[in-house]
Fold this sequence. Notes:
The complex is a heterodimer of chains A (250) and B (189).
Chain A: E1 2-8, E2 11-18, H1 24-45, H2 53-58, H3 69-84, H4 101-119, E3 123-128, E4 131-135, E5 139-144, E6 152-158, E7 161-166, E8 186-193, H5 196-209, H6 213-218, E9 224-229, E10 234-236
Antiparallel strand pairs in A: 1-2, 2-3, 3-4, 4-7, 5-6, 7-8, 8-9, 9-10
Helix pairs in contact in A: 1-4, 3-5, 4-5
Chain B: H1 2-12, H2 17-21, E1 73-76, E2 97-101, E3 105-107, E4 110-119, E5 122-130, H3 136-152, E6 163-165, H4 171-175, H5 178-184
Amino acid sequence: MMIHVEEAMGTVFSFHLESGALAPPEAAAALTAACTLLHEVDQTFSTWIADSPINQIRRAELAVGDAPSDVATVLDLCQAAGRLSGGSFDAWGLPGGVDPTGLVKGWAIESAIGLLVDAGFENGMLNGGGDIQVFGTPQRIGIRSPDRADLLACVVDVTDAIATSGVYERGLHIIDPTTGEPAERVLSATVVGPDLWLADALATGLFVEGLPGLQRIAAIDGYSALVIDLEGNLRPSPNFPIIPLEPDQT
Amino acid sequence: MAMRRGWVVLGATAFGLAGLLAFDQHQFGTPFALYDAKATKQHFKPKGGFGGASGATTTPPAPATTDQAAPATTDQIAPATTAQAPPTTQQQAAPSTQRALGDAVGNPYGTVQVRVTVKGTNLANVVAVNMPYSDPTSQSITDQVAPVLAQQAISAQSAQISGVSGATYTSDAYRQSLQSALNKLNFGK
């Protein structure tokens, strides 16, 4: 097991990789390429970097067609995610121009995993600030408790992607695009599915929408969802892959 | 006295069961509420001693719905004659299996009742024994919630996770996170 921690995009990325038959120099080169990709995505899409292409687009100083090609790709995905979320995820919903932040980290993680798989890694996962893409062997992933960073609310069987949105870190909010106010219908929202770009965006939208969003997500092929409501109860869609009860052997 | 010991052992579990079930520690047999705001205290503690995380934030209390409470009953399965520690020294309670049937608790979708199984000082199982099936809406809600009631209170020793999903936006938050602890332990193989 090869573990690497990389700070990027204002958070921390954890790589857990099994290189299999891959030679160490090749494994190291692929890992470097994956990290480079994360930093490049940050340079392109960060709304915290004044002259990033996304900020130039937001200020109408740059056309999407003149920006790096990743921008058009990501904005297309934002439109698709907006439709699939019933509008609860809306990259164009707030003043200040387009903001793909709720989707781009998931997309970056998925792209980085693509590089690693292409290079020959056989099993692993990449966790970027709690959004995780798994490849190879399915993994047991805990969902963080909303009120305690050191506790889990439940454990989930993940074959591809899992993303969780919540507001339990300091000073950060997810704004409801329909009201312009911070969303506070649930404590956290988790989406499991084949693609992390979509799981990430749907989790953001589900956090805004709350319980009614569960059914819509469960109707998307391969996707399921869980919210932790304001009373701390877990509310999964019926197809959510919670790992079932195992008797305590102690 | 079996009943009294049962509740003391329940109170000694390491999984926040007292908070989760919200029973009154001053009066054994007091009803507990599944849909209480304190349900957020119901968690796994993953294996290993990941101490030091201090990122706890309080959540706004929500009103409990305990309008259909009935008396609790307790049955003790293991022989009661084995050497039991005094009730006040909870960690040294001799291993025994005990079950407690919770009170029926009303919520907007119906009435819920759970049976709790305790082995020694460990919470072994929580099973919903009475869930609402009165109409299609309740059926749907029950299908979603019933397995969770059982899942949430399981022993943390069996969690064996390789990753943690949850919004960790900052580097500080990462350093306090379980993922950070898992990485340090080279865990998840």
